[in-house]
């Protein structure tokens, strides 16, 4: 048990290769207790592989560290005992009811009074109205809620949730996130992987990973501030033609459609303004300087040429 008490995950240099493919490259993160830590990245960027290394389910090719103070290379049994890991696949019994599934989980963890523990989880997750329904007949949102109930039932200190809201409707996603916040307020730490940008904003801190590389870490506002991006929102007619024209101009690094507008961003604010100056004057579109969103920043991070990023420092934050 080497990590300080307030650090739940402390890993350095994690690397995992499958054949020739580097799934995770030299990843270092620290996660503080009671935080909701978002693990963001596009499909195939190495999120699941990292979660599996953190629980000791998968041995890294390089790197070391601790999860809940236990060594990820040598103490996976202890880690598993204290971590609730919700995988992407629904892994409960389709032909058992919600209540039966939860009682079953309580029994395999040899918890005393399994019926009471199942009932507590049912109340905690608001599952009362569906407690007698077969798990296989539940909608995606209810299934996820049941899976979360099964995860917290043994009383873990840390939740590792792998894309828990994938394929779930917006209201159910919102309810799920409210529950994660309530659990964090009760003392749990949650590492949540997702590729939904709106969910990034619901996390206390984030790590953004793309194709195996850690590109940025920290609270949302800090990641945005450190990006040094200048962004303009452009509305009006002929945005497609404008977008094509902008692509060839210096100082413009990213153009992303957001509803009926474009977000035009650049890392060199002066060069960007010089390029757009004549277009702002001429119209017919209207331009407005806007604060970059976390999505603008992530689009920018992913589109930078490899090697153009500042390497994350030892605590995982990039300069
Ligand atoms: N057991 C494995 N054998 C071979 N390749 C693997 C294995 N597990 C993962 N990979 C590859 O490693 C890369 C990272 O995969 P990983 O599942 O960790 O990404 P992810 O960010 O969780 O993606 P998703 O959002 O799609 O779940 C992918 O290219 C994937 O194909």
UniProtKB/TrEMBL annotation:
Protein name per UniProt: ABC-2 type transport system ATP-binding protein
Give the protein family: Belongs to the ABC transporter superfamily.
Instruction: Give the matching PANTHER family.
Output: ABC TRANSPORTER G FAMILY MEMBER 20 ISOFORM X1 (PTHR43038:SF3), ATP-BINDING CASSETTE, SUB-FAMILY H, MEMBER 1 (PTHR43038)
Which domain of life does the protein's organism represent? Bacteria
- InterPro entries documented for this protein: AAA+_ATPase, ABC_transporter-like_ATP-bd, ABC_transporter-like_CS, P-loop_NTPase
Keywords on record: ATP-binding, Nucleotide-binding
Q: Please list which residues make up the signal peptide.
A: none
GO MF annotation: an example: ATP binding
Q: Where is the ABC transporter domain?
A: 9-236
Tell me if ATP-binding is a UniProt keyword of this record: yes
